[in-house]
Structure formats: C-alpha cells, structure tokens
Amino acid sequence: MEAVPIDHRGFVVSGTLLLPEGRPPFPAALLLAGSKEQPRNAAPSRSGGYPPFCQIADALVARGVAVLRSDDRGEDAPAGGATMAQATTATFAGDARAEIAFLRRRADIDPARIAIIGHGEGADIAAMIAGSDARLAAVVMIAGTGEAGSRVLERQLRRRLRATSLSPSEREAQVAEQQRELRAVEDGREYTAGGFTGPWLHFFLNHDVLAAVREVKQPLLILAGALDRQVAPGDARALAAAARGAGNANVTVLIFPGLNHLLLPGGSARIPASAVDALAGWLARGLTLGPSG
User: Fold this and answer.
1) Which residues contact 141 (CB under 8 A, 6 or more apart)?
2) Superfamily (CATH) of domain 2-148+209-288
3) pTM of the full predicted structure?
4) What does the pLDDT look like over 153-211, one tens digit per residue?
C-alpha cells in the first residue's frame, strides 16, 4: 500500500495506491465514489461506515490489477475544500483526469490498460471521461443514473414522503415546491438543497448522462442493486440501451437481487462475493487482454 499525493491545480488530493504482486507494469483501475465529499474508501453513513471500495480494491489486486482510490476534494484537502461551493460534477471529473494522468506517468503502470470504476456520481464521471479519452481500456458504472436530474430528485423525494404522515395532497404540494425550486436552479438562480449548492445542482439538472454514455466506446460494465432506493434499477438498462444504440457492442448489465445502492444486502456489512467477483473478474479479464497482456 502506497500513500500518494496527487497535485491538481494548486491543491493536493490524498490517495492510496495498491500494487499487486508480480512484475510491472500492471493494469490499473481508478475508483470514483458517489456524490458529496467522500473519503477514498467510500464509506458513507448509510453504509454503517463500511468501506466498500476496500473490498473491491482487494479483489482487483488479488487478480493482478493495481488500484488507485483518493479522497474527494473537500474531504481531506483544505485547498480543494475551499472550492466546493462552486464545484460541479465536471469539477470532480477534472480531478479524476488528474488521477488518471498520475497513473500514466508511473513506470509500474501500463498506460494502455487503465480502467475507471465509478459509483453513483462517480459512474457519471466515468462516462464523461471515457467519452473523451479513448486511451482508457474499460469502464464500470455502478448505480449510475439514467434519466434527468429533476426526475431523479423527484423520485427520491416521493420515496421519503411515503414514510411520513402527510396526506396525498400535502405530499404533492411538496413535490410541486421542489420542482419550482429546481426550475429556479435551471434558470441560474442560487438554491441549496440536501447539502448540494446551486452550481452543482445546475449542472446535475442540465447534464445529459445518456448523451455522455453514448460516447463511451470502451467495454462497459453496468451494475445495479435491485433494492436501490436512490437510483432506479431501470436506469442501468437505460444506460445500456443508450450505449448499445450508439454502436457499443461490448456492454454488460448486471442487476443483483437483494442488493441496495451500495451493492450491500440488508443486515450485511459486505458486498456479496458473487457481486465482487462479477466486477473484478470482468475487469481483470478485459485488462489482461490489453496490449501488454
């Protein structure tokens, strides 16, 4: 395990690079966490503090793939945190590009066999980067959205409201109020909701994730949990349809029964071996077939 500082436009993002045993150069994967400031192991409170990226990283390293995971800006980088108020998904994509460039500069990493794995917002970032970086070898999208941001937020609000004692009319009034506020953001006015600032929301509401995934020409693996309450499992099928419709013939979709947004089952603190093996096996096979494999 190697602690690595990654310099990007005046601040340093702290990361961890795991190298497998064997002779370099190694294939590599960059792990990108979901929305809001996330630590490098992707251990949000809703996971009970369990770090799913550690489990994924260990599985990949065991298959001969180096893994880089880093703290989001604002999580462990004061200078980066100072920019969070104006940061958008495109900002985080720039950070991820700096991390890919870091991997490509290393003599122990094969630059022709680098993959990107994103969860949640990280999945959208993975598609954004892959569409403009043909050198990336493979893409994995986990729990990525496949519809307009306003529709995603409306669905999440309706789910939360169903757990309240509000009447149907009161719930609809709240949904209508949310939509009015989001339209204000789309028009460029300032608004903050759920910890997200106006610039982030403005990008989220106006960004076309399906257009981004249509530009992905690399082998693409799309994963989702059937019990995901934040992103509809059907979004995985929408992403796959968009990629295939644009000519990508190497698209695999796996929707796991009984798993949630973090690919965790209820009452368990680990991703099931079947899900981890599916991801790690698919990626290791693809990267092994690269130019240096």
Assistant:
1) 118, 123, 124, 126, 127, 213, 220, 221, 222, 223, 236, 239
2) Alpha/Beta hydrolase fold, catalytic domain (3.40.50.1820)
3) 0.84
4) 777 777 777 778 888 888 888 778 777 777 766 666 655 554 455 788 888 888 899 99
